[in-house]
Sequence to fold (336 residues):
Amino acid sequence: MTTDAPIQSAQFEALTAKVAAVREEVSKVIVGQSAVMDQLLMSIFAGGHCLMVGVPGLAKTLMVSTLSQVLELPFKRIQFTPDLMPGDITGSEILQETPSGEREMRFMKGPLFTNMILADEINRTPPKTQAALLEAMQEHHVTVGNTTYPLPEPFFVLATQNPIEQEGTYPLPEAQQDRFMFFLWVDYPELEEEYDVLKRTTGNREVELEHVMNGEEIMSIQRIVRDIPISEPLVRYAAHIVRCSRDRRGREGDQVVPEFIRKYQQWGAGPRAGQYLILGAKARAFMNGHPHVAAEDIRAVAHPVLQHRIIVNFTAEADGITSSKLVDMILDTVKE
Fold:
């Protein structure tokens, strides 16, 4: 059993109780989508970012803005457009005159300087602006000129994409998709949920949300999540799941590459997928009040972690095999 620091029972129980309160408070505004909301929370508690895909009108923006209110975190929405420049989101240096009459360069912070960012329709802006997010997401700081500016903590990016309209878009390169911990598919609501949405949103109903958690508590949870123990066999289980997704593997200690991977896979998941499998499993265990990781936690986060990191080939597309289906096949193949 591998552990870092011992988890304080009282703090663990108090914070897991707050997670339950966050779920309840968010449900006052968001109908259904509990799995998506849980995955958003897992990503935040694990210190990751999310890429969310869904058709318009499924409350993707409302989810993030509601969550930011309940977590008491400043929130900004950036609408990505073809003419958006990197400096529009990171900020830029401007020449200003001082009271003494001298001129000096002053940095004006962009919208990235907040705790929660909604990068709306990120595939509608050119690659150079998409890439401006990379340093912020990975390093939690931005560099303008010769100066590096730290971003406020905690820092979370949720990027959205519209799967319908693809004309005039710039698909995210695989290297940038890999920076997102989870890929979240937002589907249409169930019948009863849609009834509830229509009733709630066509009247004068107003909801006042309470602050349940703050930034300091979120950072405490992020530390606790990393302290949650995971057994050595489960670490190997996560490694084998990731390695099963690719055809280019070493021989020693590896299982035989499944035939479906040789047939359908173009590119597999890298080591970052294994890191996020374990961190996501730890976050899920914490949210469910469990002091250690189980195999079920790893399997539960496998789809959001892997499906945007596995690239299928033309044979798979012809046979109707998606990356999500490949993840199912991998989980059926790799045993605990």
Summary: Residues 1-6 have pLDDT under 50 and may be disordered.
